Queue: 4 jobs
Job 1
Amino acid sequence: MKNIVIFGAPGSGKGTQSDLLVKKYGFKHISTGDVLRAEIKQGSELGNTAKSFIDKGQLIPDELMIDILAATYDALCPCEGVIFDGFPRTIPQAEALKKMLAERQTGVCGMLELDVPEEMLMERLINRGKTSGRADDNAETIKKRLDVYHNQTTPLIEWYEKEGLRHKVKGFGSLEEINDALCAVIDTL
Ligand code: B4P
């Protein structure tokens, strides 16, 4: 079974590429962003809490995210593989993921980092905002999300490098080119 982390800044294409990988490999897909947006839509207590953070461009507290993740994972497994999209976003989340998988006699086999220049991220998210209806896809919130990414999420690059799991992939160009580059790595894992 393959547990793969797809990593990158907001707008780097994690969700887009995860969908393509699910089609090709039949893996299950855990997008913490999608899980939270579904809770918001349902108007659950968790959704209301999540909304207050997401609308400000902030991350949801680690303890909350970690509990959601374990429950989501257990509902999908056993399976061929899982793509973690948007999780982990902090070092405590990465440590919790490692522990959760170890308790299930498994582990992350690779972290695929989508590398995209900052100006492209902003442009993609502004464009997505025109159709997504997402309250966090506006210029002011996108800037905050990118700051949060630089401050809280980029330390994970070094963390996964030390674990020997980091694979950097060019995240711009056609969707097919990027997907081919990701598949080339996955096939070696
Ligand atoms: P997410 O839902 O994870 O969203 P994202 O990072 O904004 O986008 P992604 O990288 O998936 O980009 P996409 O494929 O859509 O997070 C939203 C919020 O939820 C966070 O800000 C946070 O508050 C909260 N949250 C989620 N997980 C959390 C966690 N673990 N801990 C705490 N809080 C958490 O692509 C973006 C756009 O680019 C699309 O319009 C797409 O069509 C376009 N695009 C993609 N690839 C392209 C390409 N090659 N060329 C041109 N355009 C491309």
Note: The beta strands are 2-7, 28-31, 81-85, 110-115, 166-170.
Job 2
Amino acid sequence: MALQEMPKVGLGLWKIAKEDCAQTVYDAIVAGYRHLDGACDYGNEKEVGEGIAKAINDGVVSREELWVTSKLWNTFHAPEHVQLAVEKSLEDLGLDYLDLYLIHFPIAQKFVPIETRYPPEWFFDPTADEPKMELAKVPLYQTWHAMEALVEKGLVKHIGVCNYNSALLHDLMTYANVKPFALQIESHPYNTQEKLIATAKNYGLSVTAFSPLGALSYLELDMASANESVLEQAVVKAAAERVNKTPAQVVLRWNIQRGCSIIPKSTKLSRLKENLALFDFALNDSEMDAIAALNADKRFNDPGDFCQAAFNTLHPIYD
Ligand code: A2P
């Protein structure tokens, strides 16, 4: 039987290069990871599938012991394209069901056929003289109803959303026939998102924090600088010393302890193990509060910034 609960720590697959991906996934499963968080847009689902297949073939794990998440890309929002998209992800992953399928962004872009380009990414036509994002007129409720059909067909066990704000969640709850299982959002001590998380929990959603180490995720993309690292904060270092763990483990544990799942990415075996070893210590109330007080509503992953900077298109979704 498929897993009923999403394991608290998953391996985030964003930015894992194809050439490292199968081995990283395999190593992570051997190290004890049972939750993999991927997406069409990460461009590595075939390699993720290779890592999973090797782990299953070697007898490390069974399919049913794994929780595999993927995400519907923006260009597949139209109801007639949603099943196409999940079937492509399933084929690449070598699986016959996903545990969780999420709407990646509340942004509907014009359809790009799989044969034309995959993953389609942000530009409608990257070869155009001035490439831009092009939007499709598809309301989110239509996409959601097509996601619901995937559950009915047994292609996915659960469905959910990413990068929604509270207003979109309230709206979703007015029309959802299949209740959203999870909300995935950027969250770390510089962006604690307390109100949004409380809203999601009030509706019974599970909340997953992406980029749980904050700026670290964005250094390799030149979207943050090293001096923005939360691991350098005195309160984090002091807690790390008290519990005899690394600053990264303290920051990750903080998110778990306040009730979120986390999906840190690493391609280094020692860090993969470090990021999973979060359950033999606890932060005390004053440490939890002091880390939460670092909040600066700092968003590193904001379409309002990167769509303009990298994709020549103004498209804010948060104000
Ligand atoms: P690396 O893969 O070299 O370990 P994300 O926020 O997208 O999950 O990415 C996390 C970033 O932080 C990655 O760049 C990863 O790099 C790095 N990282 C992951 N785990 C740790 C850790 N325990 N300590 C320091 N850096 C880490």
Note: Residues 12, 14-15, 211, 213, 216-217, 220, 248, 264-268, 271, 274-275 surround adenosine-2'-5'-diphosphate (CB under 6 Å).
Job 3
Amino acid sequence: MRKITPILCLIVLVGACNSPKNESRTQNEEVRFEAFKEHFIEALWAKYPGWASSVGFHKYDSVLTIPNEAERDASIQFCRAYTDSLSKFNLSALTINNKTDYYLIKNVLESTLWYAQVFRSDTWDPSVYNLGGAFSEILNSSQLTLEERLKNIALKIQKIPAYYEAASKNINNPTREHTALAIDQITGSISVFDTDILKAIKQSSLSATEKEDMEQKCKTAIGSITAFVDFLKNLKNEHPRPFSIGKEWFSKKFELDIQSQYSASEIYEKALQRKKELHQEMYALSTQLWPLYFKQEKMPGDTLGTIRKMIDKLSLQHVSRDSFQTEIEKQIPELVTFVKNKDLLYIDPSKPLVVRKEPAYMQGVAGASISSPGPYDKNGNTYYNVGSLASYSAAEAESYLREYNNYILQILNIHEAIPGHYTQLVYSNKAPSLIKAILGNGAMIEGWAVYTEKMMLENGYGNNAPEMWLMYYKWHLRSVCNTILDYSLHINNMSYQEAMHLLIDEAFQQEAEAKGKYKRASLTQVQLCSYFTGFTEIYTLREALKNKEGDKFELKKFHEKFLGFGSAPVKYISEAMLK
Ligand code: ZN
Ligand code: ZN
């Protein structure tokens, strides 16, 4: 903090010399806040070097923060000091872009304090001590030479014994689920040290002694990691903490992570209501389609059974395992054309999306995902990673392909690519805010992708075919049930059987998918609510604007203006757009 003050004063003085009084005050506040942000980000990276590396800022790659009491205190001090500096700004004198930045900074400081003082997952979730990803990111970063990267790693790796010593001291009464996850993942992380880094050392032009020294450091590091895994395996934990975090924590975490105008329980109620409506609409579509697909066959007597049979039938229409990626590649330009023809929003042709096979280090994570260039690498490519089915048995591949059948595959491409995540990303990169690139709101990002699925269908994508709508509803039900599951497991003591009933019988998921979702919901909290919450907020905003503007409402304008705010929480965008 001491370093910042003189620079800020100087800027304020310079700014004060020209322009009339009121205007100059506003301008000063803007200038002062811009300078504040710059210094805040610099200080943030110095304080949280691991976070810096993960967004592609490499100045602190060689630093490994030891998770001990002193470090926690320093982090608390950091957040208090910056909360204090932030409170000195006159919010009403800031532009909307800076206002939302202000809120994002305020929120990250408040969150960090809450996590460090109340939530304390560093004591009950040992999987936070997995260093595999951090080292692998540094090793694979494209901005430094191999030798520079290895020198950073050499400095960082020697702190690993102290790191795991502090980690063991922190662990107290962890949950059974997070302990099992930690044992799995941290064991898996060893390959980064005994394979990836060693291979890179051999390929490098480091001297023989440097190489030997690094190999020795790797060995020591692996010893510490193995000892930590053994410590977890042998932990006497007769009364483990339950994974569900309860209403008080869940509500607070929802408030901090999602930053919504709604509370957790309001969103939960909305999700229950939406599930009911979706079942009604899906049943109506299924009865309409029944004679076409089942001829004389009698319909099952119950709503859910009828929908399930219709969905299973439609899921048989799918691509072959060899054409999964090419089919996705083929659909991207078709989606672009549709968006253009219907005048839904502008798509910048200078930033093409590269479809690629999922790289090895991502394998087994998801069917498809978007990899975007970080805020410090704006010219990097945006990739659409498509999972390979190569390791699947014939039965597994068939089940997967039915899940991502011809209908769902199109919706997936809308969500991930156009006009979903990829399009949002292009707009957000144009919004001039490093803060939003770093602290971007997850519910806004996911909410936008979920919103575009419905918006495309509303505008005639899929020719309004009842099949397309039915399958869309099934997909949408997933976001809705993610929220119900998350809330119910953490607050309502939902049992495993009840969770399976929700996901399999009421959301028509395959057993494997349902089990995976249950696991994810027991290991995380709140994140699964982000999809439906963001969607609900965006949709509500659009309808409110339609009401307000009547004939003057233009969908394209709404989309472009909305995305122009960058990845800010929807509640602040709503405030600005409804004003
Ligand atoms: Zn098949
Ligand atoms: Zn998404």
Note: Residues 1-20 have pLDDT under 50 and may be disordered.
Job 4
Amino acid sequence: MNHDHSHALFQRARARLPGGVNSPVRAFKSVGGEPFFVARADGPYLYDVDGNRYVDYVGSWGPMIVGHNHPHVREAVQRAIGDGLSFGAPCAAEVTMAETLARLVPSCEMVRMVNSGTEATLSAIRLARGATGRSRIVKFEGCYHGHGDSFLVKAGSGALTFGVPTSPGVPKALADLTLTLPYNDFDAASALFDTAGGDIAALIIEPVVGNANCLPPRDGYLRHLRELCTRHGTLLIFDEVMTGFRVALGGAQARYGVTPDLSTFGKIIGGGMPVGAYGGRRELMEQVAPSGPVYQAGTLSGNPVAMAAGLAMLELVSEPGFHARLEATTHALCDGLEAAAREAGMAFTTTRVGAMFGLFFTTETIVDTYAQAVACDTAAFNRFFHAMLARGVFLAPSAFEAGFVSSAHDEGVVDATLAAAREAFRSLADDHTG
Ligand code: KE4
């Protein structure tokens, strides 16, 4: 594959953008090499500036669940653009979005639109602290909730990838208010609440972890956290920025039957445009300005073009059987990858929840803890990443990210992916045997 134009662009980018990117995980720092620059995207494919085509399993990190450039989304945006880009005043589309989210996620009687997942989670935490009068929060090692100061403590995603789970610049006084727990550890959660439960404003969790690779919750774990929070007056926050509308139409809370007090969203609800949201019970949300004292605002919140994109995508994901078909695609992909690895004699396994999945180079058959994820052979993953990229398949450029399928990933696309994987695993095995 030729990458001359991407290389030239990356040289220019590094002169004016930190690391040459506008978001760290795009830089390929953990997998090595240089990122390709995208010229356009369509269906399951990305096309780079050198004319190379890739099957895309990143999907803009989750939003592109109906594939790129879907006509229903594109036409909705084109219509909205014709009426103007931004008003700074209420418009009907943001009311329709709020009503749609409340209908699809019944725990969200009210919502507030923001412009990113980060804004959604930091706003939800501020609301929880304001509503409870408490300051401490609990998060989980390896979970990533955006780059808000309170969350950059043992964080996942890029923070974990680059080995800086607790970022410089976060005052110790603030970091000390963030308590961390190991994911899927029932006893550790009980012990923490026994000692500090009365001081904890909120527990925020990715109900399915997607930022330390993909780690599903153990049976009963989310319910255990729900019971602990209820008992101690702590607000349970499901960060569904990634899982929302992906692991089920109603998100992880619908899939696992556990109702949080607050939920955060992003990605899919923007249809590819910058959107986030947080929501919950009316008596909580009415404490947000201007109906209540907890301040939060945003120039472009509820932007009419972004609302049009998100509403069009939510219409598509609401079609009967959408998530069942996507889950079947995920299983076909992951079963095929495991079979290809076995044929090549590689120690490899996968996790899959709805339309998201995780790839692990490990002898473990079940991976559902942060410790297991970080113990995997990341060097092998990095070699696999490049072996697949060279064969036209773009996986998440980090061993600590989840993968995503879309409704555009049809049987032919999955078969082509698995053909590339059989070659890639064989090349790894050949390298391994020297
Ligand atoms: P944004 O601020 O990036 O829109 O959302 C932050 C966020 C919050 N919560 C969860 C569960 C998330 O996964 C994210 C962002 N996800 C990463 C992917 N691991 C975004 C990719 C990036 O940082 O470039």
Note: The two ends are 25 Å apart (CA to CA).
